[in-house]
Amino acid sequence: MRIRLDPWPVDTFDGQLTLSPFAGLVFNAEMDRWAALPTRGVPERVRRVLVVDGKPRMEARLLLDDEAGTLSVAGFGAFVVGAVDLCPHGTRRAELQGVAARRVLAYSGDARLEAARLSPRNPHSGRLEYDPHPFSGAQVEGARSKIQRLMLDAEQQMSADLASPLPLDETDPDALPDTLVLQDGPVRIGEAGRAVVGYVKTLHTDYLGADRIGLLTELKPGERTPILRFTLGDRGEGGEGGREQRFTWYVRLCEAPFYQHPLAGVMRLEMHAPEDSEFVPRGVQDIADLSGALLCRLASQPHKDPRAPQNLIPTAALEQAMGRAMGSPELVTRRIRAHLAQEYGRAVGA
Fold first, then answer.
1. Confidence class of residue 236 from pLDDT cuts 50, 70 and 90?
2. Domain-by-domain residue ranges, the chain?
3. Considering only CA atoms, which of 235, 293, 272, 226 is closest in space to residue 89?
4. How far apart are CA 205 and CA 199, in angstroms?
5. What is the rounded CA–CA span in Å between residue 72 and residue 39?
6. How far is CA 350 from CA 65, 117, 343, 344, 347, in A?
7. Per-residue DSSP letters for 56-90?
8. pTM (2 decimals)?
9. Which residues pair with 206 in a beta bridge?
10. What is the pLDDT of residue 28?
11. How far apart are alpha carbons 67 and 301 in whole angstroms?
12. Upper half-sphere CA count for residue 264 (Cβ side, 13 Å)
């Protein structure tokens, strides 16, 4: 028996590798031969790459009761969505885009709540404004799920707005976009026709099977697998209901040290596919060809990030900026308590 290390820190939600078989069917899309393919570099035509990510935060759980004594749950929370705008050829400095906190009062029940505005004692620290958003059900974690859903919707909208259109023609020589979006996590329903690539940092679902997964251990940095196509329905990684075609392939970002599991340093990428397509659009093919070179440039190092190399350098910088935008969680919690104490005191006095 050989013991190998999962390189991701134990305080992350999941390990880097927890493979479970994909419930659906996976088909060859690019070629029938299953072998490693080299990267072809990043063409000059690609002038902008934007790395998009989001960060949610639950700030306080609430319990509501009305005059009839009916109880319901709610919560204060916040989320940030932003992007890092960079040149893949290194001709300019990377810039942050759209990093601003949005605060949410997520609630269940029939009665509509008004926006909550928390004014600080110190005017320099700004007002916290929580916009009401109802959710169905009465689960305690319903508020957290609502905040997560709002964040994902905003992330999807930002990716679609920033990315270039992507022609789905098989042979169009001008299909490679000048602006490419790398979106943390799987692509989502509604992003088809845009140059959006979802990058999945953790390998939780096995799309390859025992006869093909061995190729991932043989990939050299920058190399990729051939493109595959699968149908996502009600089950599968990142499933959101409905039926949708997607392309996927794997890229190796770095060599795995001998003491780590052999899939360390491998990332899965995915893009939307035309319904029941028998070909890979030229734009998707070109993006897959450049993906190895691009991601190897953006990959992080273990001494900088414990989730290296999959947690890309722009992603780590964006995570820090998003955390600053939401503010100190301890300070926000104190302001929520002070606000509720003040409102409750007024009600008791009345």
1. very low
2. 17-48+158-317
3. 293
4. 13
5. 54
6. 18, 21, 11, 10, 5
7. EEEEEEEEEE-TT--EEEEEEEEEEEEEEEE-TTS
8. 0.89
9. 21
10. 94
11. 57
12. 21
